[in-house]
Amino acid sequence: MLLSQYFLPVLKENPAEAQVVSHRLMLRAGMIRQQSAGIYTWLPLGLRVLRKVANIVRQEIEKAGAVEILMPTIQSASLWQESGRYDDYGKEMLRITDRHDNAMLYGPTAEEVVTDIFRNNVKSYKDLPLNLYQIHWKFRDEIRPRFGVMRGREFYMKDGYSFDLDQESSTKTYFKMYEAYLRIFKRLGLMAIPLKADNGAIGGDLSHEFQVLADTGESQLYYDKAFEDMLNQDTYDVASLQKLYAAVDDEHDSANCPVDDSSLRSARGIEVGHIFQFGTKYSNAMDAAIDDANGKRTHPWMGSYGIGVSRVVAAFIEAFHDDSGIIWPEVVAPFKVGLINLKVKDETSTIFANSFYEKLLAANVEVLYDDRDDSAGKKFATMDLIGLPWQVVVGPRGAKEGVLEIKRRGTDEKQEVSVEAALDMLTA
Amino acid sequence: MLLSQYFLPVLKENPAEAQVVSHRLMLRAGMIRQQSAGIYTWLPLGLRVLRKVANIVRQEIEKAGAVEILMPTIQSASLWQESGRYDDYGKEMLRITDRHDNAMLYGPTAEEVVTDIFRNNVKSYKDLPLNLYQIHWKFRDEIRPRFGVMRGREFYMKDGYSFDLDQESSTKTYFKMYEAYLRIFKRLGLMAIPLKADNGAIGGDLSHEFQVLADTGESQLYYDKAFEDMLNQDTYDVASLQKLYAAVDDEHDSANCPVDDSSLRSARGIEVGHIFQFGTKYSNAMDAAIDDANGKRTHPWMGSYGIGVSRVVAAFIEAFHDDSGIIWPEVVAPFKVGLINLKVKDETSTIFANSFYEKLLAANVEVLYDDRDDSAGKKFATMDLIGLPWQVVVGPRGAKEGVLEIKRRGTDEKQEVSVEAALDMLTA
């Protein structure tokens, strides 16, 4: 992508309204812009990251047997009246009246809609287990939206819903999702600790939340350091993981902690996922039933599984940044390479940089090419700010000698290499 | 994908509420389900098609220089008050009040939001031309939603917005989009006639709509048959195309038609795209200005460019179906191949079918494999209904002899071929 034809409105100064680093850097790096409180437009750079995170979540969840659907954002209030949550939900629910005076709402979650789909379309135990998910926009009318997309009102979430014949099968599905979540965060390169959690308003008694570690995280965590080794394995020992201690600070009592000090880690965390098993709460309330093998009407056991996809983007930045800007891991970087032509008016430089750009495109390397007529200082600052994993610099001297300067973002090591060597490094 | 693990709730009977063939077949083939009037969930099969259409639109629009962003679905009413459209828009706009009593709305389109982004982030003529687009959900509170996703309330649309320094540059961008639209519809395999159109409420005086031909289309079109040849060329002669006659029936006057009868075609059409040039209407109203080369504040010329992506899915079905169901063109088919194992209890059949399934997956062929224990009649009917381009049937006799039966959907020709020959046909 040529930067001259892209839309990357970077900011030199820290915006006054942004209190956390991810919010500051997402604004400064031209990833998002606020439309109104807690509601954002995703600009090209941000959207690329959002989509990469979503795709990794999608792939891993599908490997674990979930099937993708897309439910509407606007839902009927009547479904929520059936489940009994319409009144409970309070002011965080964005309530809407349509032109025919029907009570509608912008879905903050979709247990009711998916249960309605289930009861209208699934009739037999033979169709179970069924695990449906979507990655879609949700709305929660937070009283004080803040921290950018970390606590926004309109946000992007993966929400999955499972239906099983009985508790045993449902629990199996639940831990399949638990494992899939660990795999997702590992693939993303984030250390995510699973904590036993309260089911809260959603009901039921089996629940875990997943907290990504980052120094600037919102909550204080305490956990057994054995997590760190076990989460780094290729396969997970779920039974053992479950027994490990982990708690947020208001549930942690150091006097009665089962883990001794030498094995206890404390760190800041950001909640990025939450899974629930809630039994027949919704299938009973909404009378979603199937025939079991004996022809008896049975209400399936359900679970739901959320990942805050837009929140994960912010969590990445909280975990990976320095004073100059973001440091993207390759797995979700908006582009792998930032190519800088230092002096576009120098013909040799421009021919050389253009040719290297074409070679990267031909090798399917995602590259953002700063081909603008601007100062070297500004170009370097922009590249550091947007944090692409590799920076490649073409200057007049190097161009004459046929060499490029290559730098890994986040380190200060620069190397001068030939075109061939650079291509080898960037396509490895 | 194994059908036993998929979610494909097909209907044997025509749903009473569905009046047009695309609505009927989308319900029957398990592509969509209604949540409330004009609001649908996209089930797995439908979502795959929706995404394929969106991806083709995305690729072609980006080749023509547009850059992707994602604006929120919920917008501030204040922006629409600035543009003057808040009161004009009437009851089709879904108006919302948030918990702090702010007037909001579910965006039916995004001229105001994108103009706001522009005025806050673009300062100089050097950043022009700029062409931003999104593919996102919109809401129009239709008084009588009908025909399924053809005239729904929540719908999926590609909407693009261009900013140019002056009329000349804006007109160039406009016709670049005009060409990109022709290219999109050609790549989709749909014959789309561009008709000069009214700008209506959006303002301005240059506008075209694109009508896909289908016998069951909503409007009656008259057009010069020269379109058909010219739209089939590899490059478009936009100047000549523009001079050709095309009109919808209420604008067509056969007594004064410039085309003689022998060259005039009449056909039914479905509007799937609409492009507008509206000059400085919004940049003036919202004071979005940049500095021109002389440092003078200038309001850019704008255009907007829509394609109804969810509507295109329905248009495909209107154009490609028979009495048994949908006939998907390969370019947007949810899967390329439907593989049927006629007798799952026959071990030879199942080993043979499984092995062929694995070979298709290994060759990256998208395949839906009916591995369920069900009658042959039901399996054939389902495959015909969902309309995958190729059907491959494994039966006990063929499995013993190592041959498959292969059929192109929409024809009655069946061939018995070897595994190798089948793979050659399906990977060609």
- What percentage of residues of chain A falls in helices of 4 or more residues? 25-40%
Taking the sheet with the most strands of chain A, its summary is: 9 strands, mixed
CATH homologous superfamily of the largest domain in chain A, by name? Bira Bifunctional Protein, Domain 2
Give the CATH level 1 class of the largest domain in chain A.
Alpha Beta
- CATH-defined fold name of the largest domain in chain A: BirA Bifunctional Protein, domain 2
Oligomer: homodimer
* Interface with most residues: A-B, 50 and 50 residues
Average pLDDT, all residues of chain A: 96
Distance between the termini of chain A: 20 Å
Task: Kindly name the structural category of chain A.
Answer: alpha+beta
CATH architecture of the largest domain in chain A: 2-Layer Sandwich
Low-confidence stretches of chain A: none
The Rg value of chain A, from CA coordinates, equals 25 Å
**Beta-strand residue percentage of chain A:** 25-35%
The global form of chain A is globular
What's the count of strands of chain A? 23
List the total number of helices of chain A: 14
